[in-house]
Amino acid sequence: MLIGVPKEIKNHEYRVGMTPESVAEAVRHGHEVMVETQAGTGIGALDDAYIQAGAKIVSTAAEVFDRAEMIVKVKEPQSVERAMLRPDQILFTYLHLAPDAEQTKDLVQSGATCIAYETITSQSGALPLLKPMSQVAGRMSIQAGAAALEKSRGGKGLLLGGVPGVKPAKVAVLGGGVVGFHAAEMAVGLQADVTILDRNPAVLESLSSHFGSRAKTLYSTQTALEETVLNADLIIGAVLIPGAAAPKLVTREMISKMEAGTVLVDVAIDQGGCFETSKATTHAEPTYIVDDVVHYCVANMPGGVARTSTYALNNATLPFTLALANKGWKKALSDDKHLLNGLNVWNGKVTNQPVAEALGYAFVSPESALQ
Predict the structure, then answer these.
(1) pTM for this model (two decimals)
(2) Most buried among 80, 238, 276, 346, by the most CB within 10 A?
(3) Is 193 assigned a catalytic role?
(4) Is 48 a catalytic residue?
């Protein structure tokens, strides 16, 4: 199979779909790989490294999209990229379609077979291709939040962990999954006062066992949520409903009652955000202020630590990339029901139920694509 790796063009997105090491693995399996020039410079992988791995370097994204049988990316295709997709092509990348009607419409119209990293599952029901970026984003959320708490950036002027004789900042983590766990790990490590909210008793038990007295856990009733966020200095939105739009847990009314300089970091922004006042931002302009509350809503947070993120992502995606290339998409999906769960759009149809429900499309089962 001819695999194409274009350079990412989203604002301040430095990751790349395949590392030179991943390219070398694909070549060893008998595949050709075409990489757009400078696609890997953001992670320190120059064209020469890709050439040594066996890739062919091409000068434009148009050539990649025109010739490749499968496009491997990191972020959702931008409008100019979506216009280049064709019906006989596989797109393998993050999509996050539920809150993105325009992208979904374009992918449906393209006729391409679109497989989303974030809805591929594992035997345990986890999301193995989302997990590495959730780990990165969870850890980054505390770094970003700590910086935003500085007075010069609109925050309260608090040091997250305080100092001897001065109280630490209060951090509320909404959601105890992968993002929430890693956010809490970082915040606890910086000696902040951490509270984690979740609605799953098993998750709360696991968190309590892990953190002990270093972090508090709360069952997330509406009362507990409101009381916690109104007393927090930094709030991390870490909720996820696989494939679906994130629930708006924190209302505009709650935000209007928060102390000036409170910081919100919405890690769920890829799925529409879990704060009612959230709107996607970029690494170039990461924050904005509503009711004197600082909002950090960067939609591609892991892109800020591109080298770490790319290698962590490739560790997870490479086996699936090879399966799709080795077997073809239909056989690969037929052999692996968990990979089949990644099929979001096929032949002009929406094959992910939460996306179909969120955007008003007729849902077509992914199994129908295999017939």
Answers:
(1) 0.86
(2) 238
(3) no
(4) no
